[in-house]
Amino acid sequence: MLTMSAKAHKNLHKLRFYSQQTIHHLIPRAFLQRKRESLFRSLENLSKEDQQNILYRVNYCNKLNKGIDLPEQATCLSNFKREKSGTYYLDLLSVLRYFPPESRFFYLFGDVTVVPDVPTIVKSRPINDLNQNSVLLKLNGVRHYYMVKDPYSYDDKLDYLVWRGSCNQDHRREFVRKFYDHSLCNVGDIHKNALGQPWHKHFMSVPEQLKYKFVLSIEGKDVATNLKWIMSSNSLCFMRRPSFETWFMEGTLLPGYHYVLLKDDYSDLEDKVIYYREHPCEAKEVISNANRYVAQFMNTEKERLIGLLIMQKYFERTHQLFSH
After folding, report:
1. Measured between alpha carbons, how far is residue 265 from residues 6, 166, 270, 274, 278 in Å?
2. I need a surface site. Which of 66, 144, 242, 273 has the fewest CB within 10 A?
3. Which domains does the chain have, with CATH numbers?
4. pLDDT in tens, 149-173
């Protein structure tokens, strides 16, 4: 029954996304382009702290610090058509429609793990000092920003670490085979390729996983999809230091403050679980910090403004628009 309810909740989340996109695409482009300027002016009415936070996020996601002319192969907005990756296309188009149809850009959809040679709009990028050409926007948000209200208090949760997922990468398979039968864990591979193996376990919905005090976030091809809902919940996030980042700015998360840092080989996992079992006040403090971090991404109007400012900066740096 719980699984059916979770599926219904997720389907409603998807329906809301597609309904909002449909309504948005009925709005004339000319109106949106005028609206862009009024939204930029609204920044002046915010508190200094809000302005600084917004500009920090803009400059973090878009690190282009000098002008560059785009190669002629760049896509022109007037020719930007839907191919695959429908949710990526809709998310990007919902921002681009605020700009002139002659605007040109590069984009890469999917799990991007390398830095392009030219300034490119992406969902994900490596965390390093040389990722300026990877300009982050909130793409595939319907999947990565699925949140569930946590019905359980921390004290009422089970004293174990939980993880469920498909082990399509070696590092995930190594983790599951090491801990699938550990007395402090409930972890398993749900992929059909693991059928018949002792580490294969049944699917668990997000509400089912929220019954546990400790939830593991483990990267797949790029970022871990479950990181956002864990950090918005009353459970404690365990993970290794992230290698990739998205609109969620995973590279700014502080170990021991926003999440429990694990060694790359997970050799300290047992000790960390035992420690936070015995120190619930410290666990709750980390959870509170994580909740506050997630809260900055929950204001729809600010999220839209940040996305527009990121693209404005992209077009300015590529000599297509003057500073607003």
Report:
1. 33, 19, 12, 18, 23
2. 66
3. 2-144+298-317 (no CATH), 154-295 (3.40.50.2000)
4. 999 999 999 999 999 999 999 999 9
